[in-house]
Amino acid sequence: MKHLFSKFFLHIVRDFVVVFLLTTNISAQLQKEISKIDSSISSSNCTVGVAVINLKNGDTLSLNGEQKFPMQSVFKFPVALKVLHNVDLGLLNLDSTLLIRRSELLPNTWSPLREKYPKGDVKVKLSEILFYTVALSDNNGCDILFRLCGGTARVNDYINSLGIDEIAIAATEDEMHKDEWAQFKNWSTPRGMAKLLRKFNAGEVLSIESTKYLKEIMTNTQTGAKRLKGKLPPGTQVAHKTGSSGMNKNGVTAATNDVGILRLHNGDEVVVVVFITNSRETEAKQEELIADIAKVIYDASIK
């Protein structure tokens, strides 16, 4: 698959210029960026999926766009959508408090929430749990939200009800922690995730207030600083959600992902989805690859 990606990548990135109607010729700087990314892809030992949607005119691009990729923590974005949908319906209230028992703050998993409340048995506002789950990618917070929503099947059904059938959610963070193969039950195609992000940003999923609220949380995401945002000018607005599996004992990384909404130099916004799987590259190289793709898209907006 890496050779397939390399073969078509130059052609697809050149099409950015046409699709986004930004210039009639590829500038020297853009050619330089393309060459750098193509070289990186050619030497990479991984499978990459990309989807881009121009939110101004609706034009789309994708690479391996229909292939299923494990989401890892990217699935916390759909979970947050379900929670805020219930808020919009009046079934939940962001200011209400939930009793988090010590037994729910599982050890040996990423959980800033547990670090803040190590003894558990504490009442925490739903808004705080949601922030920790999305912006800090808290695994315990995610599973608490799953239980609040009625389980993975309820979240999956909700996403399907939005007309998105290229995303599947079937395992909790705890289940993925216990079984490495469970992560592959939570998959998305690049195209499916891009469609969901477009619908969300257009206000077709949540109320105006909830859309603004979640987008602000995603803009304050603290994970994956070297991915989509890695090579963009300081202060560039990126509302995003990352996902990471880490490397297994065989030296294979199942997921290094970043998906989100990128504000370009000219003020337009684009959805950018980058999934990397089956990788034997270092985390640093995978993150640089994601950053390079985002930078090509951003630079193409500068006339």
Describe the overall structure.
By secondary structure, the protein is of the alpha+beta class. The protein has a single domain (49-281), classed as 3-Layer(aba) Sandwich (Beta-lactamase). The chain has eleven helices and ten strands. The strands form three sheets. The chain has a five-stranded antiparallel β-sheet, with helices on both faces. Strands 3-7-6 form a three-stranded antiparallel β-sheet. The chain starts with a helix and ends with a helix.
Give me the CATH fold name: Beta-lactamase
Structural class category: alpha+beta
Beta-strand percent range: 15-25%
State the major sheet.
5 strands, antiparallel
The domain count comes to: 1
Please identify which CATH superfamily we are dealing with. DD-peptidase/beta-lactamase superfamily
Give the H and E element order: HHEEEHEHEHHHEHEHHEEEH
What is the class in the CATH system?
Alpha Beta
Strand order of the largest sheet: 2-1-10-9-8
Question: Distance N terminus to C terminus?
Answer: 33 Å
> Which CATH architecture?
3-Layer(aba) Sandwich
What is the 3D shape? globular
Low-confidence stretches: 1-31
Number of strands: 10
